[in-house]
Amino acid sequence: MGVGIRVENLNAWYGKTQALHEINLDVQANHATALIGPSGCGKSTFIRCLNRMHETTPEARVEGKVKIGEHDAYDGTSATKLRRRIGMVFQKPNPFPTMSIYENVAAGLKLNGYRDKRHLDGVVEKSLMSSALWEEVKDSIHKKSGASLSGGQQQRLCIARALAVEPEVLLMDEPCSALDPISTGKIEELIFELKAQYTIVIVTHNMQQAARVAEYTGFFLLGRLIEYDKTEKIFTNPSDKRTEDYITGRFG
Ligand SMILES: Nc1ncnc2c1ncn2[C@@H]1O[C@H](COP(=O)(O)OP(=O)(O)OP(=O)(O)O)[C@@H](O)[C@H]1O
Ligand SMILES: [Mg+2]
Fold this sequence. Notes:
- By secondary structure, the protein is of the alpha/beta class.
- It has 2 domains: 1-85 and 168-252, 3-Layer(aba) Sandwich (Rossmann fold), CATH 3.40.50.300; 94-166, no CATH class.
- Helices cover 36% and strands 27% of the residues.
- The chain is built from 10 helices and 10 strands.
- The protein has helices spanning 43-50, 79-84, 101-111, 117-130, 134-137, 151-164, 181-194, 207-213, 231-236, 241-247, and strands at residues 3-14, 17-28, 32-36, 60-68, 71-72, 86-89, 169-173, 199-203, 216-221, 224-230.
- The strands form 2 sheets. The chain has a 6-stranded mixed beta sheet with strand order 6-7-8-3-9-10, sandwiched between helices. A 4-stranded antiparallel beta sheet has the order 2-1-4-5, with helices on one face.
- α3 crosses α4 and α3 (101-111) packs parallel to α6 (151-164).
- The longest helix is centred in the middle third of the chain and has 14 residues, at 117-130.
- It is globular.
- The mean pLDDT is 95.
- The protein binds adenosine-5'-triphosphate and magnesium ion (MG).
- Adenosine-5'-triphosphate binds next to α1.
- Adenosine-5'-triphosphate is lined by residues 14, 19, 37, 39-45, 57.
């Protein structure tokens, strides 16, 4: 299996404060990779560098190389074009509240100029099926608004919205931290299925979750990637003392 995302010598700053130091990492395509580490260690900053969202923060700066598949993310390609190939799901579900379920899922395609109703209908249905929401909402996709769904349903709606534009990569920043155990279970199952088609990077504070869904895990500390390996190795026999301290709960 190939490399889905290649990161070389990545450094990131907020103003004068350096938030990421010399990150080097190959994310495997069609696998899920978990990123763990204590609060403030740079996990969100890191994934925001992958889709060039970091640069939208005032005074934020990035140096280094990011390749998504064969494409250089920072080679002058427009950030909008790049983000089409990278879906992102956030900690707090953020559907467009007044839009219907259908309009939420179709939003990205419409933004990209797609107008054909039959095509849009097909994509909306397929995306909602992929995100395991279709059965629950199929009779109300035009009637119900994004905001009228439960938190777990809203998160699956956001996943459907991200999938609708057929990205290669799905970035998830603590996608389950606002959800109950049943919704969390559904999202985890979903991650398991989606990785056949997508390269998934998931930030999580839940180490059991990392162990359940991800083949690879990276441990961040103070803006550095301390260790990156097979998940099983990280959780049973880490190479670095700091990883061991973290996963055994000695700090963080
Ligand atoms: N918009 C910002 N402006 C200035 N500094 C920021 C900004 N966002 C994050 N930082 C700083 O960058 C560092 C890394 O933050 P980041 O949000 O990437 O951590 P994290 O690992 O995702 O933490 P958490 O687990 O709490 O979400 C922190 O020191 C944080 O204070
Ligand atoms: Mg974060």
